[in-house]
Design brief:
Number of strands: 8
Bound molecules: S-adenosylmethionine
Shape: globular
CATH superfamily: Vaccinia Virus protein VP39
CATH architecture: 3-Layer(aba) Sandwich
CATH topology: Rossmann fold
Mean pLDDT: 96
Structural class: alpha/beta
Order of helices and strands: HHEHEHEEHEHEHEHHE
Number of helices: 9
Length: about 240
Amino acid sequence: MDLFFEIHKDIPREGPGENASTKQALLMLKDLPSEPNILDIGCGPGMQTIELAKNTNGRIIALDNHKPFLDLLKGRAVEEDVLEKIKTKEGSMFSLEFEKNSFDLLWSEGAIFIIGFSRGIKEWREYIRIGGYLVVSEISWLRQDIPQEARTFWESDYPEIKGIDHNMKIIEESGYSPVGNFVLPKSGWWNDYYNPLIERIKVLREKYDGNKEANDIMDNTEREIEIYKKYSDYYGYVFYLMKKI
Ligand SMILES: C[S@@+](CC[C@H](N)C(=O)[O-])C[C@H]1O[C@@H](n2cnc3c(N)ncnc32)[C@H](O)[C@@H]1O
């Protein structure tokens, strides 16, 4: 686990995403109050938290269960001059400790897979006020004809991976009206996530030369990247936007 964090330490973000898509999703929420109360779940080092802070006049609670990410987020928020809008909280997405019906917006980029898409959509709803929004990004099949190698890889890594239509149905059946969805551009996988990981692994391969456990973890990351290189037309991260009814 320590090695996992050594690979992931100090990279711009902890999952696929990019500021332009965060902003695009935010602009699609037409009835957001002028000073929204926002919760960012699984915020990691907070690239999207800071983008939200720059583009709203609200207050954001950034929640993660890994304190070093929260410390990193605070440092970046100071550099970007948005710390007064952000409060970090160490805690679990499995047991949110907030007032029910209190948020105008719940946000979660690349993290709902941890609790599972369907469970997260249902359980987090309680914390949103009626008419408030939930925005999540989730890895999804983009086509029907998924090559077996990609299917086998992702179904063993994340068995809940589904197509967009399937996920939209879950949203509609869980007490929301859909606002829209869009696919994260491929640049959102490479620029701030896979490319920095590739560079980090180059350095750590030398440091951990001969260490099997370390090299196995790096092999797994490289395998994931290889699969994406080959099959990025078939799956991607999708932003799902919904309104609590
Ligand atoms: C794939 S990363 C995404 C981070 C960030 N949203 C981004 O896009 O860069 C998932 C994040 O969820 C956090 N996490 C994992 N389990 C969690 C839990 N049970 N409760 C809260 N956060 C959790 C991890 O520490 C990590 O920061």
